Amino acid sequence: MNLIEELRYEISRTINTLRLRYANSADPAEKKTITNAIAELNGKLSILNQASLLQAASVLADATQDVTAVIAAARMGPFDSYLADIGEHLNRLYSLSGEMHALEALPTAPEEAPGESPVEATPATTRRGLTRARGPVSNLQAPIPSKDYAQLKDEYQAWFNACQVRPGQQDAVDYYVKKLRQGQPSYEQVGQDMNGIPWYFIGVIHGMECGFNFNGHLHNGDPLTARTVHVPAGRPQTGTPPFTWRQSARDALTMKGFQQVTDWSMPHILFFLERYNGMGYRMRRTATPYLWSFSNLYSKGKFVQDGHFDPGAVSKQCGAALMLKAVAPPVGRGLRRRGAGK
Amino acid sequence: MKASAAALLAVLALAGCASQPPVGEVRLVAKAFDNLNTASQPLLDELALAERAQGQSAALARAEAHAKAPTDAAPAIPGSGRCPRILVLGGKIKDIPEVQNGFCLDDSYYYSELADPPGTRAFRQALAAVGDYTQLLVILAEGQNLDEAKGQLATLTGNLGLALSAAGASGAGPTLNVLLQAFNPVLDLAAQGSNAKELKRLAVQESPKVQKLLGALRTQAGEFFITLTEAPMARYNLALDKPDVEAAEAAHIEAYRVAVSNYVVLLDQYGALLGDLAKVCDQPKGPITLASLAERSAQLSAQADAWRRSLASLRAGLR
């Protein structure tokens, strides 16, 4: 019996004694005194009862907490363990998927292919400065064989305006756009660090060069666990592997000097992207799949791995322009201000 | 690639071998709890009223004691030290009612009607925790948690499908598509197996904690009773020249004794039912059958219902 119980017991016995005395007393004054005493003892019992109930509540609260912890720890996700197992497989599959896409990445388009002569760099022009050669759609001129942005700016804008998804390719384009959007936060982070390079420019390069695989270097898709092996080899030159994707991306973009660019208008973006892959298509007056694949502006012709141009080969990679059309800001389709367009 | 596919299929196949949850048995136990809970709530409402009265009575008794004794003196009895500067004024002079001269924050839940006072809250929360545990078993047994989980998987596989269709030209697509198609038929089985495993763990390994809580509810039933009967007992003590009042209050006290005793018995029966469920989960081929569980559950439900009705009569008589 604890202290409270003992006290309650004794108080109850006292009340009982007082009640008996009350019954046997004929003195009104004594009866009044007894009544007051019992009322006071009732009050004491209330205090003791309250204290005892709170002790009981404390015992209950402890036991309740144990059960609540059990409920909170219950594994309600029936696939939790499977998700972990499957997640491992999916990671590998995604990685493989990235590698598959990377396999389809367009090789560099050399301006002068082995054993071939490039088209005359200075084309025949009209008095407006455009060639008479026809492009893939009736109102477009064929690509101008020039590397001078000033000469190409209008062409890029005109081609971009005319660019549409080729029938049957919409699902594939949607996939590329979805992947681009999934990586947007990472691209934005890097872009912000580098004087406001638009996220979609970084994302498009990532898609074109690495199949959106964040386990590979932005340079060329080589694993981040070591410096790059393929061209450009030995990147990043500083730091210790493994590298984060962000570190590698900064290195790749810095190497190309993109952090110094201030004009991120769409024609300029298209120019940078074409130059990133190589101006070889342009020198052949052929639409580059790097920009226009899966669109109405490209049907076939690509440089293959050995640096030769195969006029019958078809790119299996979505071109940059369709991705940009889907995600770039609609007004002006590009930026001139640093850090904007997020 | 093929190795990955085989490994994943093996994982799913293993999941499909897991046993099915004892849905019927769990539902019976849950039904019994619902009846126990429904029947207990009016008694807990009574407890709340009684505990409020107890708290207010104790506050007054403390304030009266503080008015008589120096406030910095050691508390004469446990629990009397609360709010030592609050005194009772008046009351000893004819026609001047008693009033406390301050506000004791700790007593707020005894004066407010917005929430349960602390003791009642603990009893109600304890019973609710038992209910939550039971409901958890139902969710797992019935697979109520599967839709969301399947949605997660669908998203994962959907994304993979998109990735594969876009990379289909590489030749790996068909193999992986077979893998994806293999997901769907075993998904439900895998989930049920996982749920059954977790249900068994909760019902077998974790049930001692729930039994301990039921035991605590049972053990503290004495305090439950004392609080419920405090006011009638006080009236009984003071009905010195009023045998009819004594008899009425004694009847109330005895009615509460029956009510709390029923509560204890039903708690015991529910504990036994949970014990049976644990045995079913642990040994599906054991002596406890769905029929025997159903019988005990129905018995508990009927008794709880009868108790609820008798309690309603008691409450009507008290008003």
Cα distance spanning the termini of chain B: 77 Å
Strand content of chain A: under 5%
Query: End-to-end span of chain A in angstroms?
Result: 73 Å
Strand segment count of chain B: 2
Q: Name the poorly predicted regions of chain B.
A: 1-18, 167-173
* Quaternary organization: heterodimer
| Mean pLDDT metric of chain A | 83
* C-alpha Rg of chain A (nearest Å): 39 Å
How would you sum up the major sheet of chain A?
Answer: 2 strands, antiparallel
Strand adjacency order, main sheet of chain A: 1-2
Spans of chain A of 5+ residues with little confidence (pLDDT < 50)? 118-131, 332-342
Give an overview of the whole structure.
The complex is a heterodimer of chains A (342) and B (319). Chain A contains twelve helices and two strands. Chain A is mainly alpha-helical. In chain A, helix 3 crosses helix 7. The radius of gyration of chain A is 39 Å and the shape is rod-shaped. In chain A, 40% of the residues are buried. Chain B has a two-stranded antiparallel ribbon. In chain B, helix 4 runs antiparallel to helix 7, helix 7 runs antiparallel to helix 9 and helix 9 packs antiparallel against helix 10. Chain B is elongated and about 85 Å long. Chains A and B meet through helix 1, helix 2, helix 3 and helix 5 of A and helix 1, helix 2, helix 4, helix 5 and helix 6 of B.
